[in-house]
Design a protein that fits this description.
Blueprint: H1 16-32, H2 43-62, H3 66-92, H4 98-127
Helix pairs in contact: 1-2, 1-4, 2-3, 3-4
Length: about 130
């Protein structure tokens, strides 16, 4: 991830899942720029909202209790899976290549596994209290 350009810092920015989610959202943002104009308020909009939702929910939940953070992580996980469908639809409509879809799937798989691992870590912490 790129260096922080600001002297102001938030703890969630250190989370690797947050950093990867930010990068995935930026990748999707680049991809949708080549979508046809008529898709601006359809698939393109849905895809970028779902992709951005991953990082947004990680950041929002990070300041909560462990149980509440787990809930936000579930929403992030759900958004990641929504991105699978958006990427598949984009590929089927020839808006992105098979290679881009495959890279999206790789990134989403990695994010999903990281989110699941973090959720399990938080659950374990809750159960040992």
């Amino acid at each position: 991830m790129q260096k922080r350009g600001s002297k102001y810092y938030f703890k969630f920015e250190d989370l690797q899942i947050y950093q990867k989610a930010i990068l995935f959202g930026e990748s999707v943002n680049t991809q949708i720029k080549s979508f046809p104009k008529e898709e601006t308020y359809r698939l393109a909009s849905q895809f970028i909202r779902a992709a951005d939702s991953i990082a947004l929910n990680i950041a929002e939940g990070s300041a909560s209790s462990e149980a509440n953070f787990n809930r936000y992580l579930q929403i992030a996980w759900d958004s990641a899976h929504e991105c699978v469908v958006c990427s598949t639809k984009a590929k089927l409509r020839n808006f992105i290549s098979e290679e881009v879809d495959e890279e999206n799937r790789r990134a989403i798989t990695e994010l999903s596994k990281m989110i699941t691992s973090y959720k399990n870590y938080l659950k374990k912490k809750l159960n040992t209290k």
